[in-house]
Amino acid sequence: MTPIKKLLLILIFTSIALYVCLPPKMVILGKEINRPGLDLKIGKIEIKKNFDLVFGLDLAGGSHLVFEADMSKISADKQKTALSSVRDVIERRVNLFGVSEPNVQVSSFEGKNRIIVELPGIKDTKEATGLIGKTAQLVFAQIEGEGEEAKLVPTDLTGADLKSADVQFDQTTGKPVVSLEFTKEGTNKFADLTQKNIGKPLPILLDSEVISYPTVNEAITGGNAQITGDFTTDEAQKLAIELNAGALPVPISLVEERTVGATLGGESVSRSVMAGFVGLVMVLVFMVLAYGGLGLVADLGLIVFGILTLALYKLIPVVLTLPGIAGFLLSVGMAVDSNILIFERFKEEKVRRTFSDALEISFGRAWDSIRDANIATLVTAFILANPFDWSFLHTSGPVRGFAITLALGIGISLFTGVVVSRNLLRVFVKDRTKNKVQST
């Protein structure tokens, strides 16, 4: 592919990213213009995106919830493990609920074991509180005896035997149902259970309450089942979230609930944004003063970097906290770092080669240094993000936010610093040099 075609492709992607970056409402020439989001439906696949930035607790406020765990039935040597398991289950539930970058921490003080949950952007906590606090113990039962002597007897087939739970719609009634897929061991248990209860009801209990009462028509060996009932779509979705996240190992109770404002004042945020803008302008000016026309090309690449980065923040989405903004600003400086390495190498090469050849060799020979420097930073970002939740590393939400924005910035800066800038120089510098040689 020629440099011009590559540049056109980059321009198309940048234009799409620029559309995503636009605010939802704009006033142009006195007229208010709304930027529509993405609303796409292909068959059963439905994609909806509003392209709005998501802010963290320190920038947008949210909810602060404190739960206390009941450890009365847990031995002292297992309480720490149980509390850690509770934290993990709550974090999974909150993530499945749709809250990005929650901050979930445990606290043990004076014999009280508590879990502190901070939910950015959530003002009405009633729904989230109900979801977090549910024990979600799913059990399949069978009926033993007849008439007045009939009783429900729980079996050993429980939510622990589930592989996944999804919301589907009944082909006949159109009502939402929760489809269950069992693990290999659960599949064997379910096959044995249905074989023994052909023609009988097979009650399904959630937290000791019957939520479905299906009748077994034949032995089911495929490892799939459905929970039916008078569910709304939201209720079915909540049930699937609870089952996917797992059951709480110990009961918890809500002891504190409050809505908090942004921990940083509006003035502090405005000053931070202004500082970032000033820093960006200074980088742009420095590149032009230091490298002239080459610096101007690097500035164009930096502008593309900013557009693509902001678009990714909206598409993923990335929850922006003040540490996250710091990660972005740090990546701005690193975005031109590759160009500086290339241009400094170019100063040495142009002395003994033609302009265009020196430029190509500079990109090639500077790549090793660019690659190694960015890999080292990516390793640091990986450690800070701690994606595997290693206990010996920090799991703070703001720290992870900083690491994620830094890693994204590095990845995009490699693209803009090497690919975008290289093709801009090939088109506007190399071709122009050839034209000058031909004219002489």
Straight-line distance between termini: 29 Å
CATH class category label of the largest domain = Mainly Alpha
What is CATH's topology name of the largest domain? Multidrug efflux transporter AcrB transmembrane fold
**Taking Cα atoms only, what radius of gyration do you get, to the nearest Å?**
29 Å
CATH superfamily of the largest domain: Multidrug efflux transporter AcrB transmembrane domain
**Count of DSSP strands:** 17
What is the total number of structural domains?
A: 3
The coarse overall form would be elongated
Helix content: 40-55%
Please identify, by name, the CATH architecture of the largest domain: Up-down Bundle
What is the strand content? 15-25%
Helix and strand run: HEEEEEHEHEEHEEEEHEEEHEHHEHHHH
Tally of separate helices: 12
Structural category is alpha+beta
Low-confidence stretches: 431-440
Largest sheet properties? 4 strands, antiparallel
Would you tell me the overall average pLDDT?
Answer: 81
Summarize the structure.
The protein is of the alpha+beta class.
What does this structure look like?
- It is a single chain.
- The protein is α+β, with helices and mostly antiparallel strands and 440 residues long.
- It has 3 domains: 3-21 and 265-439, Multidrug efflux transporter AcrB transmembrane fold (Up-down Bundle), CATH 1.20.1640; 62-134 and 251-260, Alpha-Beta Plaits, CATH 3.30.70.3400; 138-245, Gyrase A, domain 2 (2-Layer Sandwich), CATH 3.30.1360.200.
- 51% of the residues lie in helices and 22% in strands.
- It has 12 helices and 17 strands.
- It has a 4-stranded antiparallel β-sheet with strand order 7-8-6-16.
- Helix 7 (266-291) packs parallel to helix 9 and helix 8 (293-315) packs antiparallel against helix 12.
- It is elongated and about 100 Å long.
